Amino acid sequence: MYSYCPIKSFILIIMAETKYIFTTGGVASSLGKGIISSSLAKLLIARGFRVAIQKLDPYINIDPGTLNPYEHGECFVTDDGAETDLDLGHYERFTNVRTSQANNVTTGRIYQAVIDKERRGDYLGETVQVIPHITDEIKHRIQLLGASGNYDFVITEIGGTVGDIESLPYIESVRQMKWELGNRCLVIHLTLVPYLASSGELKTKPTQHSVKMLLESGVQPDVIVCRTEKHLTQAIRNKIALFCNVNPSAVIESIDVETIYDVPLLMRDERLDQVVLEKMQVRIRKQPDLKSWEEFLHQLKNPVGEVNIGLVGKYVELRDAYKSITESFIHAGAENQFKVNLKMIHSESIDENSYKHLLQDLDGILVAPGFGERGIEGKITAIRYARENKVPFFGICLGMQCAVIEFGRNVLGYKDAHSTEMNPSTPYPVIDIMEEQKKINKKGGTMRLGSYPCTIKTGTKIWDVYHKTEIIERHRHRYEFNNAYLADYQKAGLKPVGINEQNDLVEIIELEDHPWFVAVQFHPEYKSTVASPHPLFVHFVKAAIQHQKAQSE
Ligand code: GLN
To answer: Is the CB of 476 under 6 A from ligand 1?
Structure first.
């Protein structure tokens, strides 16, 4: 496992085989398995290991692409065009490691693969069953990333809560892998230790019960991470250790914190990574290097000012619907050392009477991505306000399309201009369905998805943002700027400044005679990470800060 390097006379850690860490959850959902998994990955990477994180989702949808945000929050898109769970966004933001289709597996996808094999005759007449066929397929998907040879550790987060009927095949697969791979596998169980104010006590019973439930499935957790609002005493740690068959040092406290970005440091202080490495018998020398992470936190927590940015969308009441956008603003705020107060504005609440009141205190306005008719007029009204009042504006995907519609209607005089998504019989279809989308009638996974290149014009605002002419960004759309109207737009000052040259698709527009009016067909929010905040968000926040200064002068 280790090789001795005589020249430098130190022990090199060469991990012969990939190790597998599983994160399960008990007691309640939403305890933050994704954040714990991402934090552990961050710590292991900061020690020099190569780590991938994967999520197994128990629902029967093939992917969350067809789920509406009320059901599932944001749909995160990877470079290779997979529509995935939003936890993959956390993985990327924490680790700066790109994910792909292989990092998110759903029960639907597992069953589809098994049923396809059965239809092909691959099972040679066997009865196809949950064990071994479904569990074999699950184990295959878990080990796919490891088989690439690119990772020392694969962390697999099991969606749902232990005891759910639908996650049973996943837990059974973990049991089998533990049996087959021994200490190359480790299970971290995340539970809740509630505080009862009436008795002034932390309660361990729910944790004991959820561990029992896991044991009933044949899985002994190696580490227990306890989500709590009060510090765990040593007595509580000992009690959990005794009842759940783990060492007291493997009972890890995860106390509520100000920001999710505190969690890696918290886990370092609780020695989560150390405990994991010891349990898996990986000898370590290097301490995690978290200097740049700490610098980021310092910038985040010591802002020199605040700006107000409005996020206009139709799902603003849902905390997770615009997750990547809200996180991108945290990264961009820290980069500018400014606190971004994100005001969530429901697009349906914006109309001719309310817009001034809702928008007048904003230093910047972002119009969010989306689908369908609802709330569209409010978005267009907000854009008109930003354009006419020279408030920094940033449009993303549908936000860009709305900016084109607004300009068409109010500057070019195209009465009732629209996207054919909302009004198929508009006299001015300034946004129209892409040619390749016309023949598609299936909904799942059929949009223009994932990374595509874009060429940027020099001497533009957007060039100042990227400082290069060739960029690659991620996409998720079916409609595009209708080039039949391009000349009119250009003449009137709305310029195409980023183009996908392969199919002549307008990817970025910006407005002349405006301090910062930029809109993009792609989704920059999917690529912003702590280590590499997205320059579009960084520059938009900068423009908002400048707007604020100019207003107060
Ligand atoms: N509904 C628009 C389209 O499909 C925009 C999509 C989005 O904002 N992601 O093109």
So the answer is: yes
34 ligand 1 Cβ < 6 A:
no
The answer to whether 553 is a known catalytic residue is no
- Coil/strand/helix, residue 208: helix
Ligand 1 contacts CB of residue 314 (under 6 A): no
Cis ω on the peptide bond leading into residue 132 (within 30° of 0)?
yes
Task: Print the SS3 string covering 301-367.
Answer: HCCCCEEEEEEEECCCCCCCCCHHHHHHHHHHHHHHCCEEEEEEEEHHHCCCCCHHHHHCCCCEEEE
Other Cβ atoms within 10 Å of 245 Cβ, number? 13
Per-residue model confidence as pLDDT tens digits over 284-329 = 778 899 999 999 999 999 999 999 999 999 999 888 999 999 999 9
Q: Which of 352, 391, 520 is nearest to 452 (CA)?
A: 520
Q: How far is ligand 1, taken at its centre, from the CA of residue 33, in Å?
A: 30
Distance 67 CA to ligand 1 centre (A): 15
Residue 297 CA to residue 301 CA, distance in Å, equals 6
Q: How many whole angstroms from its chain centre is CA 526?
A: 7
Number of neighbours of residue 199 by Cβ within 10 angstroms: 8
Q: Running DSSP on this structure, what letter comes out for residue 522?
A: S
Q: What are the tokens at 530?
A: 């702590």
- SS3 category, 107: helix
Rounded CA separation 113/105 (Å): 11
Alpha helices in 106-166 (DSSP H): 107-120, 135-147
Q: What is the DSSP string of 251-282?
A: EEEEE--SSGGGHHHHHHHTTHHHHHHHHTT-
Report the distance separating Cα 490 and Cα 523, nearest Å. Answer: 23
> What is the pTM assigned to this prediction?
0.94
Q: Distance (Å, rounded) from C-alpha 14 to C-alpha 519?
A: 47
479 CB within 6 A, ligand 1: yes
Give the pLDDT confidence score for residue 15 in this predicted structure.
59
Catalytic choice (75, 185, 397, 402):
397
- Residue 474 in 3-state DSSP? strand
Rounded Cα–Cα distance for residues 213 and 208 (Å): 9
Q: Of all helices (H) and strands (E), which one includes residue 54?
A: strand 51-57
Phi/psi class of residue 127: alpha, beta or left (left: φ > 0; alpha: ψ in -120 to 50)? beta
Query: Would you say 521 and 507 are in contact if contact means Cβ atoms under 8 Å apart?
Result: yes
Core vs surface per residue 489-501: b (16+ CB within 10 A) or e: beeeebbbbbbbe
In the numeric block, the tokens 């040092």 are attached to 249
Catalytic residue among 226, 335, 525, 534: 525
User: For residue 151, which of 37, 1, 55, 51 has the smallest C-alpha distance?
Assistant: 51
| 373 in active site | no
Q: What is the DSSP letter of 215?
A: H
528-551 tens-digit pLDDT = 999 999 999 999 999 999 999 999
What type of residue is 456? I
Output phi, psi for 322, to 5 deg: -120, 40
Helical (H) or strand (E) element with 44: helix 33-46
User: 478 in ligand 1 pocket by Cβ < 6 Å?
Assistant: yes
Residue 402 a catalytic site member: no
